Amino acid sequence: MEKQRQNQAPHILVLPYPQQGHINPMLQFAKRLIQNGAKVTLVNTISIWNQISNNIDLNSIEIESISDGYDNGGASSAESMDAYKDRFWKVGPKTLSQLLDKLQSSNKPVDCVVYDAFLHWTFDVSKSIGIPVAVFLTQACSVNTINFHAFKGWLDLPLLETEIVLPGLPKLDASDLPPFLNQYGTYPRSFDILTNQFLKIDQADWVFVNSFYELEPKVVDWLAKKWGLKTIGPCVPSMFLDKRLQNDKGYGISIFGPNSEDCIKWLDNKPKDSVVYVSFGSLSDLSEDQTKEIAYGLRDSGVYFIWVIRDSEKHKLSKEFMETSFKKGLIVNWCPQLQVLTHEAVGCFVSHCGWNSTLEALSVGVPVIAMPLWTDQVTNAKFIVDVWKIGVKAVKDEKEVVRRETIKDCIKIIMETEKGNEIKKNAIKWKSLAKNSVDKGGSSDKNIVEFVKELTLY
What we know:
Layout: E1 11-15, H1 20-35, E2 39-45, H2 46-51, E3 62-66, H3 81-104, E4 112-116, H4 122-127, E5 133-137, H5 141-152, E6 163-164, E7 172-173, H6 179-182, H7 188-196, E8 206-209, H8 217-227, E9 230-231, H9 262-267, E10 275-279, H10 288-301, E11 304-308, H11 319-324, E12 329-332, H12 337-341, E13 346-351, H13 355-364, E14 368-370, H14 377-387, E15 391-393, H15 404-416, H16 418-438, H17 443-456
Helix pairs in contact: 10-15, 13-16, 15-16
């Protein structure tokens, strides 16, 4: 269908992988596209929409659905994650094709599909009916280039070297690489999804990444030569960055229910820089031993703390700790993380170093105690500590557990020492650079403006 495109708002369909950590950044990108004159339809699985029907605040973003084959329960109702992926990869393309056919014959045909790189089959579905595509990478450029080398076979696997040298990156130890590469063969499903996201990426019309140029300039330049990659992040609500999107204080979708404001009220009564905020993301599953060590590391440090622990994980905490924690701490099931991180009472962030949490810390200038668990978090932690210098790493012992003494020492470094002051200064520097990148005329803003302009003239 030939479109008369002059001065008409392009219609962009945005398709994230159905997990909170993938939905959030693509949704923020969608808001920036609308800011620049585009119309956006957000697509997700029926199971996700069923789960979050009472927690959606998307304003001018329209929504549509495809199926993952588990409409009544999503991934949690599948026999296994492998079974979920296998069915999703069969049903998803068929239902996406049906959706695109419906939209193309309507009065709002799609001009471009922006898809999460995990859902690589979107490329063929979209191109089969002549729709341009943009790939959206949800991880850091440093991690993407490592995974891309694995995809191309440019890394010898199993790893033969202890020191890894890749274009655009500092020298890395093998232990700085994602575990599915460093411990090759131990995470086959992760290897499959994280390397196959590069299928046909060099044939895509656009490639976007949730990062900003100033954060990773050398590796961005290298990837730009490979795919024409453009940075469009940090994909964080505008009111925590440039404030150009009025009332954009949250992501707009929550799988975990409404945010609790109890923690903000609790923080209001605490001194400046006195609270340690602890969260390991939406998918973490700490061992009982590790949970106990964190608990007593916080207790022994004597600081105030907020700890986000899902209800399903609270049984790992001792009754004694739960009974005494109220004196210094607040344990919550979920909270508005960005509002917590920007509160003046919060002095540092104990984090798993997922990319969204890392970008949030960078965007609001909060020091990090890095406790990576798996996948890209290990590499992100390396950059947090040694490249961006906004944190310290809590090192595991021979049993792969961070002990309470280590946690206590890391908190003391951040909260009480000159090194901690330097880390805080670096964090503030990155906060300014992150804001500038998405503000008018910034590196990410220019790329978004250019994309919408190109589509308008496509």
